[in-house]
Design the sequence.
């Protein structure tokens, strides 16, 4: 008479184990599919046409201003200091070079090394001559890259500086063109900054 309850109880245990196995398999399978979907979505958020357009704008600006190098530099967070303060860094994300000019890109460089550059981003757009600037880490990197003069203008996102557009001239004769056409050069730089800034900000909106 006690056999039926034992058989029934055994069936319920097996059924419970089977159901639990299905649930676990379903959960893990769902997580795996979600991960694939998430990765696919992240890849899909990259609009390569935007980056191609930005490079074209940089190249057009470089040609118009007779510059040797034009760069888009963006600020970002890195690791953290021991006191918990974020290490602010910057990287070159886009660059256009004249023939014979080598790349001079930054990758995860601490912003604190470029304090003189950060100060210049607080000022109005100006044509700087490297030899006339005070000695600094930033100035030394320009000299090593044979930069004679440069101009830099910030990008903004939600009211905060998010990076900068910097133009390098690597020849003294080229400097003469900038000096003689400074108003036009400024207009070209400001226009290019505005259109690239719009592209970057729209890309952020589209990725949300």
Sequence:
């Amino acid at each position: 008479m006690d056999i039926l309850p034992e058989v029934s109880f055994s069936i319920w245990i097996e059924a419970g184990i089977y159901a639990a196995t299905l649930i676990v398999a379903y959960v893990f399978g769902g997580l795996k599919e979600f991960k694939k979907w998430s990765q696919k979505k992240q890849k899909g958020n990259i609009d390569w046409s935007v980056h191609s357009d930005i490079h074209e704008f940089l190249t057009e600006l470089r040609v118009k201003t007779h510059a040797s190098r034009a760069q888009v530099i963006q600020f970002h967070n890195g690791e953290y200091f021991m006191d918990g303060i974020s290490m602010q860094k910057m990287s070159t994300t886009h660059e256009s070079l004249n023939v014979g000019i080598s790349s001079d890109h930054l990758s995860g460089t601490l912003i604190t090394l470029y304090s003189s550059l950060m100060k210049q981003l607080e000022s109005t757009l100006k044509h700087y001559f490297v030899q006339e600037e005070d000695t600094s880490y930033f100035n030394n990197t320009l000299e090593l890259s044979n930069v004679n003069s440069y101009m830099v203008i910030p990008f903004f996102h939600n009211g905060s500086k998010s990076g900068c557009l910097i133009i390098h001239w690597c020849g003294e004769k080229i400097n003469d063109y900038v000096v003689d056409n400074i108003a036009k050069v400024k207009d070209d730089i400001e226009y290019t900054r505005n259109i690239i800034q719009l592209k970057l900000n729209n890309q952020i909106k589209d990725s949300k």
Q: What stands out?
A: The chain has a mean pLDDT of 82. The longest strand covers residues 69-80. DSSP finds six helices and six strands in the chain. The two ends are 66 Å apart (CA to CA).
